[in-house]
Task: inverse folding
């Protein structure tokens, strides 16, 4: 049970699933005059990236990993031998692993408006960045960015390395949005797509649910319409947002199992309305620790990018999917309550109906949405086989 | 589809499911020196109640209806012929209906800390009430109250009418908590229990999830630690809370079906981070309209009462359930994402294992949790048969 409690504390963080000695280095990519889908030109964009394995001479062994909502480019390996944790998919990325770095050059970059602004290993451009034109932080004057913009930045990064085609693109959750966007937007450049705990487009339920994550930030008096960079950070609101995200990404079964000592008859909570139940105090402390590494405005922009996601920026998903040339492996989680497997099942049917080569294999785990991270090893053979074809 | 949209707008509100001519009158019950489970004595408690049908001479034809979280005592009928809507369970309460007011005297009361403080038909005592000792509103000095306290107030109300025993007690959601508490606390006074979309005790998942409803209120700068009665109400926070409650009570299928014109590519939301997607603007306007009839502190107290619920104020549910003498009919909703049917199924097994007479019959609807209200007619024959035995 102790192990489970530790797992909970690490939700959405990096997670060491195997003893890894892959040492990685965060690098910085800069591009200029980047025009967003929303029509605004950013004079400069910086994002961090890391890579595992070696780019071959033909530059045709490239696998791009696109990260989830609260994730970073740290998909595998460690920055130092002494790191407590390896990257979030270290279980499947590395020498001899499902995504074999002896064969493939694996690359992963931080998105625009990455959540983890205060993580020293993250490099991103967003509302917390200095606008070179004004010398001040953008705040809410930063343009809305979309999943397609994330892809365009990745495309420029790859071009800077002389890479024009992807052997595969692989992403979980919001990472699946980016991976799918690649396959729809650049069908002739993407040979394989692995779409994990994902979706093809947003429905009303999900757009409404994502807004629930934004509400606490906007209510925090310290948020001040996004102009908090000279004062107190809206940490109370951001903590509430983290509480929402964490619970939404889990399944009740593992959640309850991870609190084996939970008692409903809570004396403190009974005696004073101002005292939270003990479990809520514990959860709030964990969420605050997470919130401290993040930027509230960046979270709002990630929410908006997710709300506006529809593959290929097409209102009709079937139209977008019809463009795909990549072979597709879909790995939804059966117990997912956030991006429910019904969406992925429908998408697989649409792909099949339009003659695409698609395999769907559901992850049967205990974590709910997070099975895409914590139970990914259950699909390592299928991933390896898919990449070998 | 239009009808579905209208349904959405009425969620958790009263809902006219049949042409009812049952006219009802809100009455007021006052009791003094009421000591809460948390150990505080309230000098005076007032609650509203209404009744349908006639109390017989033996006073043994009484069915108590206990209301859900955001509900009121208005379970059936109309206050005036011109009312647009009848009470929330009007489909099953009335002359010749499943809960037949030609046979039964049906009574329903507003709980303590009822959410709908600004509804002119609601009478309740809570933090918005004047403390007779100080002449000021209680605010957060009001004691924490529990589901058991709600039951104790109901017991005093019934005693004031000379009623000592219940033919049946029937409640949905938080109403099921009260109904179950009756059967556990007063086993010899409750002959039948109908437990709809309910639970027997809170788990870690639900306690954490309920706190998500409280967070926006506490973040609203107008909330001011509950001392807002002389100033602006924390309507922004309360609106966010209503958005949370409404979505949590529904199933994605009906939610999405109710927005047939939903477009993910939202121009306004793409052009400015300050502009919400159209669907979120619509939802926020509806939630604000609901919030205006409610009191934020009362919602916080209802959340706490729910978080602390465990039948019989027992940590061990089996121990509590072993006391029940009532026959039990359990009606969970198969698609319930708020109080998931797994809880009710486990409770039914525990009851059966301890030799109790229990029937479980799941509501198969499209609404999720709200099937306990909107799809209750699908169980009218079973309810009538259960009450006839």
Result:
């Amino acid at each position: 049970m102790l192990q489970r409690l530790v797992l909970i504390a690490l939700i959405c963080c990096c997670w060491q699933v195997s003893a890894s000695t892959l040492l990685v280095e965060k690098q910085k990519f800069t591009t200029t005059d980047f025009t967003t889908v929303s029509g605004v030109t950013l004079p400069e964009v910086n994002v961090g990236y890391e890579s595992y394995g070696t780019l071959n001479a033909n530059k045709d062994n490239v696998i791009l990993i696109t990260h989830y909502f609260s994730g970073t480019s740290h998909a595998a390996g460690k920055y130092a031998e002494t790191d407590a944790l390896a990257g979030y998919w270290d279980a499947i990325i590395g020498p001899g692993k499902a995504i074999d770095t002896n064969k493939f050059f694996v690359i992963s970059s931080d998105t625009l408006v990455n959540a983890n602004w205060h993580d020293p290993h993250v490099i991103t451009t967003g509302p917390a960045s200095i606008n070179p034109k004004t010398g001040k932080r953008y705040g809410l004057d930063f343009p809305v960015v979309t999943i397609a913009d994330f892809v365009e930045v990745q495309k420029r990064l790859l071009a800077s390395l002389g890479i024009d085609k992807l052997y595969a693109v692989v992403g979980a959750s919001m990472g699946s949005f980016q991976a799918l966007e690649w396959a729809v937007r650049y069908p002739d450049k993407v040979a394989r797509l692995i779409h994990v705990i994902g979706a093809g487009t947003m429905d009303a339920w999900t757009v409404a649910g994502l807004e629930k994550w934004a509400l606490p930030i906007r209510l925090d008096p310290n948020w001040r319409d996004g102009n908090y960079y000279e004062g107190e950070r809206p940490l109370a609101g951001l903590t509430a947002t983290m509480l929402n995200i964490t619970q939404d990404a889990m399944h009740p079964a593992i959640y309850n199992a991870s609190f084996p000592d939970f008692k409903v008859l809570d004396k403190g909570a009974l005696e004073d309305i101002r005292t939270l139940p003990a479990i809520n105090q514990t959860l709030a402390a964990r969420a605050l620790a997470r919130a401290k590494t993040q930027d509230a405005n960046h979270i709002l922009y990630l929410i908006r990018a997710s709300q506006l996601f529809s593959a290929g920026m097409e209102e009709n998903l079937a139209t977008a999917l019809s463009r795909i040339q990549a072979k597709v492996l879909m790995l939804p989680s059966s117990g997912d309550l956030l991006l429910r497997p019904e969406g992925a099942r429908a998408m697989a049917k649409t792909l099949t109906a339009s003659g695409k080569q698609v395999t769907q294999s559901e992850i049967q785990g205990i974590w709910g949405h997070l099975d895409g991270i914590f139970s990914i090893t259950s699909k390592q053979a299928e991933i390896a086989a898919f990449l070998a074809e």
